[in-house]
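ok so for the tutorial part 2 we go from a plain amino acid sequence to predicted structure tokens. step 1 is just haveing the sequence, like this:
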Amino acid sequence: MTTLCTLASGSSGNATLVSAGSTHILIDAGISVRRINTALKALGLSIADLSALLITHSHSDHVSALTTLLKHYAPSIYASNGTAFDLRNRFSGISPLLCPFTSGDSFCVGAFRISSFSTSHDAGDSARYRLDMPTAPWGF
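step 2 — the prediction. this is what the tokens look like for a chain of 140 residues:
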């Protein structure tokens, strides 16, 4: 079964969880780690259960949790090349966790095949994602 749970959406922060079996992907981390932990706990999960973090772009309402997250956890962080460049300049210690890609690339994380798409936004090299499984596609 595939589930989607919006943890936060809006100018005060964005975070969405997509899960299938033991694969749990957090799309953006624009709320506090405390809020992420609380939301995940309500779903029977923790940050340690995350398979990966996908970042759409580097605005603070999409990445504000990274400073604290990087101090306590080591998730794989997928971001377009331009966004990865911005993240390296803003967050110390993030480089070993980054999995940069060229917009338009596809890659796999656990149960999902993820396709990336370039978006028009006021952030450099922003991306959206489509997560596919044999039974259900999800687009962000």
